[in-house]
């Protein structure tokens, strides 16, 4: 079963070419199997992550990221059982389960950022995380939606301190995370 997302996604295009752009957004089905970050990109990711941590707590960012996902892509809200009853942003902000999940996502990113220089082309923790998400009906393209929501959060939070170089480094980083988690998914 393919992804049932907005019209921007074309399942056949994803099968033929796993990386393509629509409306200046890049979508991937399976990123490269190796983390291709330079030392400078690792430094950019870590410095922007440190700056983000200074600006607030992960739970706050996690809540905002989940709200962006649910508002911009309500068609995937069903994979979070707790989200079915959340219809307004206010209800989302008040949901303990949403807050917990958002915090867990940011904690997982934090763990991965801390070991960026040790990641290789098969990261067991990320593959296992992908396997876990199979139980919820997740698909690789859902992780791309999460990546895009995360990119909005970090860009909005850091403003002028988030350059195009930071953005590119984070995209490379997330695409690796997605490819590893995708190895664990059974779609």
UniProtKB/TrEMBL annotation:
GO-annotated molecular function: heme binding; metal ion binding; oxygen binding; oxygen carrier activity
Domain of life: Eukaryota
Record-annotated membrane-spanning stretches: none
CDD domains in the cross-refs: Mb-like
UniProt cross-references to Pfam families, sorted A to Z: Globin (PF00042)
Protein's UniProt keywords contain Protease: no
Assigned keywords, A-Z: Heme, Iron, Metal-binding, Oxygen transport, Transport
InterPro entries: Globin (IPR000971), Globin-like_OT (IPR050532), Globin-like_sf (IPR009050), Globin/Proto (IPR012292), Mb-like_M (IPR044399)
UniProt domain Globin: residue ranges: 36-186
Similarity comment: Belongs to the globin family.
Name of the protein in question: Globin domain-containing protein
Species this protein is from: Brachionus calyciflorus
Top-level taxonomy: Eukaryota, Metazoa, Spiralia, Gnathifera, Rotifera
């Amino acid at each position: 079963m393919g992804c049932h997302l907005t019209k921007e996604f074309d399942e056949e295009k994803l099968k033929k070419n796993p990386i393509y752009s629509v409306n200046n957004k890049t979508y991937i089905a399976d990123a490269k199997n190796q983390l291709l970050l330079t030392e400078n990109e690792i430094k950019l990711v870590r410095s922007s992550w440190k700056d983000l941590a200074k600006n607030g707590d992960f739970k706050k960012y996690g809540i905002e990221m989940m709200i962006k996902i649910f508002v911009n892509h309500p068609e995937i809200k069903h994979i979070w059982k707790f989200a079915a009853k959340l219809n307004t942003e206010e209800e989302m902000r008040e949901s303990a389960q949403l807050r917990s999940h958002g915090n867990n996502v940011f904690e997982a990113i934090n763990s991965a950022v801390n070991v960026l220089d040790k990641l290789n082309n098969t990261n067991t923790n990320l593959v296992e995380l992908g396997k876990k998400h199979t139980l919820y009906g997740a698909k690789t393209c859902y992780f791309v939606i999460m990546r895009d929501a995360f990119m909005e959060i970090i860009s909005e939070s850091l403003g002028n301190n988030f350059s195009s170089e930071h953005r590119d480094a984070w995209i490379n980083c997330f695409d690796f995370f997605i490819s590893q988690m995708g190895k664990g998914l059974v779609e």
